[in-house]
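Dear colleague,

Following up on yesterday's call, I've attached the two folding results inline so they're easy to grep. Please treat them as preliminary; we haven't cross-checked anything against experimental data yet. The first protein's sequence and structure tokens come first.
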Amino acid sequence: MKVLTGLALALGLCGSLKAATEVHIKVGGQGGADARFALGLPPFIAAAPQKPEDAVTAKQLREIVRADLLFSRYFNLLEQGPHFDGDNRDKIGSDWKNLGSGWLLTAQVSQAGEKLQMIARLDNLNAGEAVFERHYKQDKSYQRSLAHKLSDDVVQAVSGRMGIAQSQIVFANNQSGHKELYLVDYDGENLRQLTRHRSITLLPRFSPDRRYIAYTSYKDGNPDLFLLDLANAGLKVLSNKQGLNIAGGFSADGSQILMTMSRQKSPNLFVKTLSDGQITQLTQHFGADSSPTFSPDASQVAFVSDRSGNPQIYILDMATHRAKRLTNLNWCDSPSWSPTGEWIAFAGRANALDKMDIFLVDVTGNQIRQLTKGEGSNENPSWSPDGRFLAFTSTRNSASGRDKPELYVMDADGSAPHRIVDIPGSSFTPNWSQ
């Protein structure tokens, strides 16, 4: 049975390497940087100054919000200016505006029992008006979640675009001696283990509402497809046919999930309607079709196929089931369709001796952009929910003795790559939530 590279590496199977094909790669960025908004960020304060523990919490919350806003690339933060004391917002607003701020974020923090409360206000200094004043309340143990919510509200109010600070990344890791699933906040914090199957468990996919994760596990002896409910840790079988059962992407409305299934034959693509369990076969080839990902409107599917020789990226029209080839590299794997629709990220190599790198291809196949080059092996790209960043795995730290794939994030033009979590073992197949 022929299986594509991503599946071969992940599931311990093998695929054959064919001869290199010639390719011309256009390397470029995603366009100019967004204009940045000047935002004044004075220290957050304790609503009750006599409570030092509240002051400590206020400082911690501000640091989380600060990091979120800087990561978003939307803001130039101004931090040296008059402090907020709870009553002087109008006066300091004028002062912060004179210092160059167009926006001002202030917050007061209090704690009662196990509850944490924050009252935050965002002012548009140029318009001379408050954009919002909101009360946030959360259990103390979810302090970071509260800060991320404020950060996303600020991004939405100022830029008009969704924030990603509340998003998470799920991935597989083998630190326990088995491949298990782990969940981490987008910034590398709050790492937690999701599965303990003591088997091969990998290739997770978030549902759009972030409640469920579909994944494949050998825990029952066959590579079966499961659905994990994050709210209550409930687990149910999505597909356990003999052979491969691997999740592709969910549709944007969460009603369907793409799957790769072999049914003791060559892998092909299927789609399952979750409400009634109906499964429809999308491709029928002797070669291997794999790694399907929906377009944002679910009218098309990008996938990998070796039907023409080496694995390449194809697009399938859901209405006609006609496929169009997009790439002509030596090897392609693990496509991920951008939430904005213009680009498909994938791992690939131009020549047989190259290591794997991250590429973008547009939906016409006329533009291919290489985002990583010469820094280890880079695989399994997954888009942030706003389409401005990519999570991926990389072995680029091998020179420092870390000869293993680790979890990285970079801007969608390939800039600013950085490891987001330091975890023992090797990490695989990340998927970024909505």
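Below is the second protein, in the same order (sequence, then structure):
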Amino acid sequence: MVRSLAQSTSRLSLAAAFLLASAAVALAQVRLGIDVLRDSGFAEVKGKRIGLVTNQTGTDAAGERDRVLLHRAPGVQLVALFTPEHGLDGTELAGKYVASRKDNLTGLQAYSLYGTTRKPTPAMLKGLDALVFDLQDIGSRSYTYLSTMGKCMQACAENHIEFIVLDRPDPLGGERVEGPGVGPGGINFVAQFPVPYVYGMTAGELAKMINAKHWMGAPCKLTVVPMKGWHRGMLWADTGLPWVRSSPNIPRGDSPLYYVATGLVGDITGPELGIGTDVPFQRMSASYLDSEEFTGYLRGAGLAGMSFSPYRGGGNEGANVRIDGHAAGNLTALNVYMIAAMYKASGGKLFSKLPGQVNADLRATYGGASLQRMTEAGMAPAKIVEGWTAEVESFRRERQPFLLY
């Protein structure tokens, strides 16, 4: 009797687990590129020797790893993996070089594209018919996954290999376009393309634009496997898809909103952004700030969709940030207002103790030295933000032919 009850309980537990898994898949409104590829019987890669650019975010809508799916797909020869910043498991800290290693799920070599090279070498690509890209981007120019995509497209063009993008949502949606462009000489790995800081495009859409504009040199043979069910008004929470931590400090589907709003400040030594806590990029503090004064200033900035409350901790004061991603407020602008207040509160010592020295990290991510120069010159934050308008509107028109959704 006890054994019978145990067996019944076990069967019920399995049934419950199955129902939960089925409900999770049913909730997902969006079919990712990897799902669409599988639904087609892997038509775009069948009979080909392929490499896969992936990490822990490369999953189907049900959470199964793309590299496992492709490794066991009939008629598909997955022979190598390639990994971006943060590594195959997404656990390496920002800016830390990643070593190549063997993948324990597939037994394949996982070549690092954030180590001794940022671009696949001819030796890495030898014998491949196609290189497949399936990484979850966060919609901000300074996040390096799509920079890696660009380098891969360049390598494929040089080595006459097809490049295939399995498309994924932009977690910020496809309508938000904002922030500074890239100034003269500003192209670098955290500003790889001449696009606004927030570009409102999926990986597949941006790949089409990169190719057509020759931003990485000669165009490659490009195939995009589009999603089904995604539209431009969707934030991540609207997709019904589970979020996989894309890097150590992007733990939730709404984390990209906060990364955009405060991440530029993180390139400056001194201010604390909640990194290493459960609210990365969701607070801003420094030893020289007064929490009530700083919070009142931010509330008075008129930034729609953003709310602030005083923060005190660890000897610092500042503000907690809350964001409604569907509101029309300019998220990138928050960085500018915070930097202006911090520059004043620090007695003009925010960027460097050496007058005239440009903060290299901020220059790279902003796409030039203009933000520091304008802040030091006393330009009002609203005027700095207004200076982005013409380039943003021009980009909206320029990107239109490449939109898939």
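For the second protein, one point worth flagging: The chain has a mean pLDDT of 93.

Best wishes,
A.L.
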